[in-house]
Fold this protein.
Amino acid sequence: MHSADMVRKGKWSPVYTSMIDDLYPEGGIKKRFFKLMMWIMATFSKPKDSSDYVITVETVDKHNFKDLLKEINVPTLVIGS
């Protein structure tokens, strides 16, 4: 399920804990600790209005910039002796 859909239904815990999966893919005690902290935060400090989050996630999903990366030109001046 998409995170914006979960937030619309009021299910913040899976969204918060999925952030930790991305930060700590290898697992371990640190990952379990932070997942617990995110679960607690999602349980006790849910935002009252989730529309900002939903709009942000949907906008990021719709913005496909991968094909435009080849058009970025960054001239660099290298000075050395």
The mean pLDDT is 84. The longest helix spans residues 29-44. The chain has one domain: 3-71. The chain is about 55% helix and 0% strand.
